[in-house]
Amino acid sequence: MKILHLTAATVLTVLLTIAGCSMTPSMPTPEAEQELPSRFEAAPGDTTLPAETADTAAYDATRWWAAYDDPALTALVDTALAANLDLEVARSQVEELAAQFRIARAPLFPSVSADGQVSYQNQPANTGIGGAIGGGQGPDRFEFADYQATLGFSYELDFWGRVRSERKAALSQYLATAADLQTARLSVISQTISTYAQIASLRRQVQLGQRTIDLLEQRLETTEDRYDRGLIPSFRLYSVRQSLQAARAEQPDLERRLYDAQSRLATLLGRFAGEQRALLPDSMAVPLAPEPIPAGLPADLLMQRPDVRASARRLEAARQQIGAARAEMLPSLSLTGQGGTQSSELADLVDPGQVFANFVGQLTAPLFQGGRLRANLSAVEARYKQQAARYERTVLTAFREVRAALVAYDKQRRRYREVQQQVDAANDAFQAQRDRYERGIGDVLSLLDAERTLVQARTRRAGVRLAVVNARLALHRALGGAWTEVPAPEDPRLFP
Q: Given strand 332-343, what is the order of strands in its sheet?
């Protein structure tokens, strides 16, 4: 008996040791991640901040949109995050993957089931076995009753780490889906801010367009009077009429674009078109970001992008699936057991003498399955290669998008400065013409033309201001959110 106990203990120790094995392979760091530059170069001519200030820049997942200091905009973004239907779908997908993870880890624990059974049989004695043995010598009928209460369990020892690999793969898929939710969240934030800025810009352009029409109508009236008096040729009159007709033709399209932007905002907020009016203030301005972009942002910020993190997690899931496929090619040991009481009388179920138990250990080794297991392993390895290529492509694309967004934002800010100088020059010209007119040495046509030029410059500035906002948002999307001067977080890369 001692020898038997010693042998059982030895076997258990060996089994527990083997159960700690894993068939998941180690993989090299993807090439795109190995060669990732240390930082993003500043856009040519960008001197907003010295490069050394970016050494402490890091990803900041806080409410970065509140930095625009626009209470109406902040309320709209918060509403969109709570009510947007695309985000609701993404959140449900995360919940689904969380359930899938719990399903994948369930085989790590024994499966236990309880069962209660009652059977009753009443038949003539001359049928079945009774008839075979001569039922006429005994009772006319046989009556049987059986009561049974059992508790059973089954468990497969995870020798080669198959279940653990599947659990880790499911966890990685869950984390990837959670990162997808952050991508969707960032998209909704950006679309809300962009649409808000577009509404503000179009409102301003509609107002300026109407002012242009008013000025051209006044100029046409004056031009017709001067033409009737023979002071100007007819082509001057026709030119003013054409300008007025062109301005009137542009106004309906501006109003259509404004309605479309407002309707899109309502959809982002999870509402019917028109219901967004209650959330929009009467006075709106295109929000410009308050702080500049640090020069030389660390390229490691790229690894905080939700889509990069999602791709990295899916690559890890593919790696774990290789381990699970390898483990399927090796023998498996399953344990099953059942115990309980059984009696022909219900009252005897609690009698210790009616207890029964059985235990079965089963070793199964795949010997021949027509190449299915090897083909499955090859397919899983091919999927890993595909995901590795997708991950590298995601990293390269993200790096390109950040570089392009940095350059585009810098160019749009330069363009805005040039347009602002045009507005200042047009305003100075208008003021000069108004002073001349008030002093009686200027004519009304020159005054109207100067004001129309000023209105045109302001209209151009409204469009460029919106382009600056969109360029800034493109940079936020490219970096996965915002940045802040805080200690850098732990390296989030999949292969440190």
A: 111-124, 141-157, 332-343, 355-364
Confidence band (pLDDT; 50, 70, 90) for 12? very low
Q: What is the pLDDT of residues 61-119, one digit of tens each?
A: 467 888 888 899 999 999 999 999 999 999 999 999 999 999 998 888 888 899 888 88
pTM: 0.79
C-alpha to C-alpha distance for 38 and 301, rounded to whole angstroms: 10
> Is 12 within the bounds of a domain?
no
Distance CA 75, CA 201 (A): 19
One-letter identity of residue 411 = K
Distance of CA 102 to the CA centre of its chain: 22
Q: Provide the residue range defining the domain that includes 317.
A: 22-109+161-330+372-485
Distance, in Å, from the CA atom of 2 to the CA atom of 330, rounded to the nearest integer, reads: 32
Task: Report whether 150 contacts 348 (CB < 8 A).
Answer: no
Q: Is residue 125 part of a domain?
A: no
Rounded CA-CA distance 354/343 in Å is 6
Q: Which whole-number Å values give the CA distances from 414 to 45, 361, 464, 472, 476, in the listed order? A: 10, 76, 10, 13, 19
147 in a structural domain: no
Q: Rounded distance, CA 494 to CA 496, Å? A: 6
Helix and strand totals (H; E) in the chain? 10, 6
Q: How far is CA 345 from CA 102, 121, 142, 150, 293, in A?
A: 42, 14, 16, 16, 84
Residues in a beta bridge with 484: 58
Residues 494 and 316: beta-carbon distance below 8 Å: yes
Strand partners, 155: 335
Whole-angstrom distance, CA of residue 199 vs CA of residue 456: 19
What sign for the dihedral angle of Cα 417, 421, 422, 424?
Answer: positive
Phi, psi of 368 (to 5 degrees): -150, 125
Looking at the structure of the chain, the number of domains it has is 1
pLDDT tens across 297-342, in order?
777 777 778 999 999 999 999 999 999 999 989 998 888 988 888 8
- Indicate the length of the chain as a whole number: 496
What is the rounded distance in angstroms from the CA atom of residue 397 to the CA atom of residue 94? 25
Helices 444-479/372-438 angle, 10° precision:
160
The amino acid sitting at 328 is E
- Give the pair of three-digit tokens for residue 278: 């209650």
Could you tell me the two tokens for 289? Answer: 């970001």
Contact 357, 151 (CB under 8 A): no
- Would you give the DSSP letter of residue 298? B
List Cβ neighbours of 386 (8 Å cut-off, separation of 6 or more).
318
> 284 lies in a domain?
yes
Tokens coding 272: 């019917």
- Check if the beta carbon of residue 163 is closer than 8 Å to that of residue 297: no
- Write the CATH number for 27: 1.20.1600.10
